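pasting for the record
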Amino acid sequence: MLLVTGYVKKDWWHTRDGDIPARPRSELVVELREYAGVRLHMLTPAEPLTWAEELLEGLQVDEYSVSDL
């Protein structure tokens, strides 16, 4: 399951470099696997926009759009 969320509280994310969400907390990953039998992947809303420019040829993403998210 892919969850794109702006919810960045510490009880949902392991962080890197201070407050930057790196990956979902292991407790959430285990809980979803136990109840639904699927893996959990989480992204912040800015991440897909950041990657879109690399993945979609010719697309230009405005830096303001990413920082605004």
